[in-house]
Amino acid sequence: MESPKKSFKANLFYKGKPLVLNYQLMEARLKRKRLTPAQRAEYNRQLQNEGGFLTVADREDTEPLLINFHSEEERYTLRVATPGMFLGKLLSMENIRDGQGQQTFEKQWVVVDRTEPTRFFLESVSPGTVRMLNVAKKASSDNEIKGPIYLYEQPGRLELDNQRYFSQTRIEGQHLLHDPFGVNFDIQVKDVPLSNDPSD
Amino acid sequence: MDLYEDEVALWSDFVAKTLTKTFTLTMPPEILKIIADLADKFILERRKREVVSEDK
Fold first, then answer.
1. Could you give the CA distance from residue A11 to residue A64 in angstroms, rounded to a whole number?
2. A4 with A40: CB under 8 angstroms?
3. Per the CB < 8 Å rule, is B41 touching A159?
4. Domain ranges of chain B
5. Do B1 and A36 touch (CB under 8 A)?
6. Are A58 and B47 an interchain contact pair (Cβ–Cβ within 8 Å)?
7. B2 close to A (CB below 8 A)
8. Which of A88, A106, B13, B24 lies at a 20 to 30 A Cα distance from A180?
9. Tens of pLDDT along A71-119?
10. Is position A199 within any domain?
11. Which domain holds residue A93?
């Protein structure tokens, strides 16, 4: 697959499982039968309050997040194209407050409203697989391609429900289950919009 | 944690097998609670797997 030069919509997969926003993951978990009261309460809590970070689905048949890749001179900005809570919002690497109220050291791949999101460069690893390298934000007028995306895994509030999220930095944190490592994504292009309007 | 009827056999089997493998008479009785909690978590993991019947 050649590097895509124009805007398109696509799904991303990590080792066969679709990337979704956390609210989609919680909705899927709430549909499971035989949830304990603690599980139901925690999934509802995350659905209300922590729905906006990008994570990996539990099941391979979960509906993946549809992402609009908008190209500006081969640097892509990402927007949510799945109808629902976060339609139209940008996906960017941002410092956020974690569940304890502390500013996280590493940035997380989350939905934001601001106008200067993280930009990405898609490097084709093999047909259907890309490495998404992050580029500095446009405001700094720095076009240098930096590093890959790292997968983090930390324990959630329930013992068997770890939270997986992505960052552009590699920092070994105290509450991680394993060292973060750079990941490649499998990409499935869904369709190419006719115009380059990013709000499509 | 509450168990469904079809999970009882699995839970009891897990506890019995773990006890025969690990239990010695010098262990404190708290080991029973530890193994029972472990069996609860095992059932929670079992519930995450969906069972599909083969379509012919």
1. 6
2. no
3. yes
4. 5-48
5. yes
6. no
7. yes
8. A88
9. 888 789 999 999 988 999 999 988 887 767 777 778 889 998 877 888 8
10. no
11. 8-191
- Whether chain B has a CB inside 8 Å of the CB on A33: the answer is yes
Band (pLDDT 50/70/90 cuts) for residue A138 is low
Structure tokens at B21: 């493998």
Percent of chain A with pLDDT strictly greater than 70: 90
Question: What H or E segment, with its residue span, contains residue B1?
Answer: none
CATH for A151: 2.80.10.50
Angle between helices B5-22 and B30-48 in degrees, nearest 10: 130
Q: Which helix (H) or strand (E) holds A182?
A: strand A181-183
Q: Is residue A114 part of a domain?
A: yes
Is residue A1 one of the residues assigned to a domain? Answer: no
Q: What is the pTM of this model?
A: 0.86
Q: Which residue has tokens 């549809």?
A: A66
Identity of the amino acid at A66: L
For range B4-20, the mean pLDDT: 94
